[in-house]
Amino acid sequence: MRCVAWTGTLLGFPVMPACLFLMCLLWGFAHTASAADLKNGRSMFFAGGCASCHAAPASAACDNPKIKDKLILSGGRCLKTPFGTFYAPNISPDKESGIGGWSSAQFIKAMKEGISPKGEHYYPVFPYTSYQRMREGDLLDLKAFLDTLPAAKSRVPGHDLSLPFQMRQTLAAWKWMFLDGQSFKPDPKKSAKLNRGAYLVEGPGHCGECHSPRNLLGGVITDKRFSGGPDPEGKGIVPNITPHKTGIANWSEADIVTALETGLTPSFDTFGGTMVKVQENMAELSADDRAAIAAYIKSLTPIPSSAGKPGKP
Ligand code: HEC
Ligand code: HEC
After folding, report:
1. What is the Cα–Cα distance from 19 to 262, expressed in whole angstroms?
2. β-pairing, 229-230 with 78-81?
3. Domain ranges of the chain
4. In sequence order, what are the beta bridge partners of 270?
5. Which of 45, 103, 126 to mutate to test ligand 1, by most ligand atoms within 8 A of the CB atom?
6. What is the model's pTM?
7. Are the beta carbons of 4 and 109 closer than 8 angstroms?
8. CA–CA gap between residue 198 and residue 186 (Å, rounded)
9. From CA 284, how far away is CA 313, in angstroms rounded?
10. What percentage of the chain exceeds 90 in pLDDT?
11. Ligand 2 centroid to 250 CA: how many Å?
C-alpha cells in the first residue's frame, strides 16, 4: 500500500496502475509458491494409498499384489469385486493416458464428489466416500505432488462388470444414499491429536472402506463401521479394528503404532493380505501421524466383530 501512496504523490496518477499490477504479480507468485506444500502432498499420497491401486502391478498379471514402482501411476491393476472386475486408471501426469490435463477444480470434484471432468459418476471402488472428507488444501497439495511424478503412457482395459452395474447413471442413486458430501469437521471437545487421527482415518486413510461390513448395495453399514467384514476384494475377511474383545481390545496404542510402522503385530505375526501395502504406506507418514491414528482407533466405540471370526490378539 505504501508503494501506491508513494507513487501516487510523487509520480502522479498514471504510474499507479502499473505499480498495482506489479504488486498483484508479486503477490500472485508468493501465493502460488506457498499454496503447494509438496511434503504435505506426499503425506496425503501415502495416507491415501493411491499407489496401492494406481501403480502398475509388477508383472503382466493384473492382480499381482506386488507393485513395479510406487511413483509410476500408470494404472492397470484389476480389483475383483462382487460387482465385477475394475481396472484402476492411469493417474500419472501424462496428458493423454493420465490426468496431466486436469485442472485443480476437476481433481477436487473427482476426489470429493466422484464426478469425472466429463460429468460421469465414478464407481465407489475408488474410495471417494472417504476422500470427500479431505480438506481442499490437502487435495491441492496432493495434486501438486502427483504433478511431480513421472508421466507414463498406458492403455488400461475398460471395467468388466455385470449388467446393472455397467450403467454409470445408476450410481446417482447409490451416491444419494451413501455419499453425504461432508468434509471432515474437527470435534472441538477432542484433543488435536485425536482430531488429526480422526481426519487421517476417516479421510485419506479410508480405513473404514475395508474394515467395515457392507449391505447388499455395497454401502458401508454405518453403525457397524470398523467392526470388520468380508474383504471387499472377495477373499477372506478384514478384522474388527474397534477396541472390542473380538477386535483389538488387547492391542495397546503402542502396539498399533509399532504395527503401522513395521508390520509386526503383538502376536509376533506380520500383517498379511491387502494390509501389507497399507502398512508400507503408513511407514512413510510421520511418527506423530501414526500415533494420532493409533489414538483415534483406540478411541472408537467397541463393536462386536462383523467378520464372523474373533480378532487375533
Ligand atoms: C481401492 C483402490 C483405489 C484407491 C486406494 C485409489 N483409487 Fe483412484 N480410482 C480407482 C478406480 C477403480 C478408479 C476408476 C473409477 C471409475 O472408473 O469409475 C479410480 C479413479 C480415479 C481417478 C479418476 C481418473 C480418470 O481417469 O477419470 C482419480 C483422479 C483418482 N482415482 C485418484 C486417486 C488418488 C489421488 C488416490 C489416492 C488418494 C486414489 N485414487 C486412490 C481405485 C482406487
Ligand atoms: C485395502 C484394505 C484395507 C485398508 C484400506 C486398511 N486395512 Fe487394516 N487390514 C486389512 C486386512 C485385510 C487386515 C488383515 C491382515 C492380516 O490378515 O494379517 C488388516 C488388519 C489391520 C489391523 C490388525 C487387526 C488384527 O486384529 O489383526 C489393524 C490394527 C489395521 N488393519 C488398521 C488399519 C488402519 C488404521 C487403517 C487405515 C489407515 C487400515 N487398517 C486400512 C485391510 C485394510
Report:
1. 56
2. unpaired
3. 38-178, 192-298
4. 264
5. 126
6. 0.90
7. no
8. 8
9. 25
10. 79
11. 15
